[in-house]
Automatic annotation (TrEMBL):
GO annotation terms (biological process): carbohydrate catabolic process
Source domain of life: Bacteria
Name the record gives this protein: Aryl-phospho-beta-D-glucosidase
Record flagged with keyword Hydrolase: yes
InterPro entries: GH, GH_1_N_CS, Glyco_hydro_1
Coiled-coil spans in chain: none
PANTHER family reported for this sequence: ARYL-PHOSPHO-BETA-D-GLUCOSIDASE BGLC, GLYCOSYL HYDROLASE
Any one GO molecular-function label of the UniProt entry: beta-glucosidase activity
Record-level GO cellular component terms: cytosol
Family, as annotated: Belongs to the glycosyl hydrolase 1 family.
């Protein structure tokens, strides 16, 4: 669709940036905080780059006022951050830690004082280690009540001051990486357990949404999903069918549950035939259908391209070079042959020959961002909050104290233009939270993979002085926000 003139962003559009507790806070055992599964997992030799962890991270816990001051100077309208469950309830389901409540309360007040809308994520991958030990984490239905207790505590504490809440961040990623590939905690490689845990997370998500609507009826809540559009490699109907299968498997398996309370039939039947489908009771279905999100958070980095499966069409197996990384969370594909995976009879993943890639091999696809927003909005008819979009790169601090990240500006500019086109198409978009505000700990890539508008003076081996240094992109986004 070509337009001579694009629709302007609304005056109240939430131009923001995002972060996650474990990746920025540090203070991992201070003021009564209990350990999370990431505090434990990151200490396992070989699991993270150079053994990096979030013990100190970028020390946001002690320097949040400095960080919020930079947000204000940048002109941010919104800041999305997550709450550490184990900072609020150290043992997962016991006494509430008032020091933890106070930290986030102070952060919210500081944001509000600077006219920055706080957007809270309830769960960004860091369940308390005590809940993992006691309940086997998300593999037990008993953990749902513990999660509700935590939600109730923060809804009571902050519900009158926070208008937008995210339940779970990228459920498709943390379940696959944690229970299938063992590259995240709890370090499991069992696909049946993955689907079982994923179902329990769905139930917890529904309970949290219903509890929120009871306690904070005038504000909004919804999950945040890592979405990637599915493309067929050719116009061959077999490839188109494979892309449809991939869309069901990689996207609809989660979004249909969030928005319709029902798993897609195609994938559920397939998983049942393989003996790995989750057990879904009548009461489960009733609960899932009762929980209605007010908006959908969409994290967008890239999509995927697909061809007909290798079982029915083995002659297509080597037609397109395949270099899909095992640890690419948005495609959920293994590194080598797919013979032992549910994907094999459904589709085959291939590279897209029309797209460039980042330093980490992620495809750069701004138009896919517009496609994503249109597809999700048309299918589910819910407002969309862009909760993540950004570029990871090895930024260089030059001798004069300048970080010239023009490549990040180019990336964000092209994606925001496509978001504006989606807005012009009619998509209801609440805001845009770039990932991320400051540099932070990349879960598996340490501190060398930088996403922030603000450079943090530290590396994988030395935390240095943790000085905050605005990058070129900081000033670009500041001017962009002023112009709306």
């Amino acid at each position: 669709m070509y337009y001579q003139k694009l629709k302007k962003f609304p005056k109240n559009f939430l131009w923001g940036a995002a972060s996650a507790a474990y990746q920025i806070e540090g203070a991992w055992n201070e003021d009564g905080k209990g350990p999370s599964i990431w505090d434990t997992f990151s200490k396992i030799p070989g699991k993270t780059f150079h053994g990096t962890n979030g013990d100190v991270a970028v020390d946001h816990y002690h320097r949040y006022k400095e960080d919020v001051d930079l947000m204000a100077k940048m002109g941010l309208k919104a800041y999305r951050f997550s709450i550490s469950w184990s900072r609020i309830i150290p043992d997962g389901d016991g006494e509430v830690n008032q020091a933890g409540i106070e930290f986030y309360s102070n952060l919210i007040d500081e944001l509000r004082k600077n006219k920055i809308e706080p957007i809270i994520t309830l769960y960004h991958w860091d369940i308390p280690q005590a809940s993992q030990d006691k309940y086997h984490g998300w593999e037990s239905r008993e953990v749902i009540e513990a999660f509700k207790k935590y939600c109730r505590a923060v809804f009571e504490a902050y519900g009158s001051r926070v208008r937008y809440w995210v339940t779970f961040n990228e459920q498709n990623v943390f379940t696959a990486m944690g229970y299938r590939w063992a590259s995240h905690p709890p370090n499991v490689t069992d696909i049946k357990r993955m689907y079982a845990a994923n179902h329990i997370v769905n139930l917890a998500n529904a309970e949290a949404i219903n509890l929120f609507h009871q306690m904070v009826p005038n504000d909004q809540i919804g999950p945040s999903f890592g979405y990637g559009p599915a493309y067929p490699i050719t116009a061959d109907p077999k490839d188109v069918l494979a892309a449809d299968n991939a869309d069901d498997f990689n996207n609809n398996w989660w979004l249909d549950v969030y928005c319709r309370g029902k798993y897609p039939t195609l994938v559920m039947n397939h998983l049942k035939n393989l003996g790995v489908a989750p057990t879904v009771t009548f009461e489960d279905t009733k609960l899932l259908k009762s929980a209605k999100p007010d908006f959908l958070g969409i994290n967008y980095y890239h999509g995927g391209t697909f061809q007909q499966n290798q079982i029915e069409h083995p002659d297509k197996g080597n037609q397109h070079e395949k270099k899909i990384s095992k640890t690419d969370p948005y495609l959920m594909q293994p590194k080598d042959a797919q013979a032992q995976t549910p994907e094999t009879p459904m589709f085959d993943s291939v590279q897209n020959p029309y797209l460039d890639k980042t330093q980490w091999g992620w495809e750069i696809d701004p138009i896919g961002f517009r496609i994503t927003l249109r597809r999700v909005y048309e299918k589910y008819q819910l407002p969309i909050m862009v909760t993540e979009n950004g570029l990871g790169a090895q930024d260089k601090l030059e001798a004069n104290g300048v970080i010239n990240d023009q490549y990040r500006i180019d990336y964000l500019q092209t994606h925001i233009i496509e978001m504006q086109r989606a807005l012009t198409d009619g998509v209801d978009i609440l805001g845009y939270c770039a990932w991320s505000f400051t540099d932070l700990l990349s879960w598996l890539n340490g501190y060398k993979k930088r996403y922030g508008f603000v450079y943090i003076n530290r590396n994988d081996d030395d935390q240095k002085d943790l000085a905050r240094i605005p990058k070129k992109s900081f000033y670009w986004y500041r001017d962009f926000i002023r112009k709306n």
